[in-house]
Amino acid sequence: MAKVCIVCGKGVSSGHKVSHSNIKTNRRWRPNLQKVRIIVQGRPQREYVCTKCLKASKVQRAI
């Protein structure tokens, strides 16, 4: 299972790291994902959620 946000689908994006001499190497930008207990279809479940969705209260946290 890939690490993606269950709410918004945010995942890893890729691009180039560009040095001062303009040499390009591959790199990845990883989202800030947290594994939290949330309510999914009425049951508590551990899922990856990005911090932006957590802050915006787009998920209901399970206790």
Write the layout of secondary structure elements.
Blueprint: E1 13-18, E2 24-29, E3 33-40, E4 43-50, H1 51-55
Antiparallel strand pairs: 1-2, 3-4
Report what the structure shows.
This protein is mainly beta and 63 residues long. The chain has one domain: Ribosomal Protein L24e, Chain: T (Roll), CATH 2.30.170.40. The chain has one helix and four strands, in the order ββββα. The strands form two sheets. A two-stranded antiparallel ribbon has the order 1-2. Strands 3-4 form a two-stranded antiparallel ribbon. A hairpin with a 5-residue loop joins β1 and β2 (24-29). The two termini are 24 Å apart.
- Poorly predicted ranges: none
Structure classification: mainly beta
Largest sheet: 2 strands, antiparallel
* CATH architecture level-2 label: Roll
User: How much of the residues is beta strand, in percent?
Assistant: 35-45%
CATH class: Mainly Beta
Overall average pLDDT:
95
- The CATH superfamily appears as Ribosomal protein L28/L24
The quaternary state of the protein chains shown equals single chain
CATH topology: Ribosomal Protein L24e, Chain: T
The best one-word shape is elongated
Order of helices and strands: EEEEH
| Sequence of strands across the biggest β-sheet | 1-2
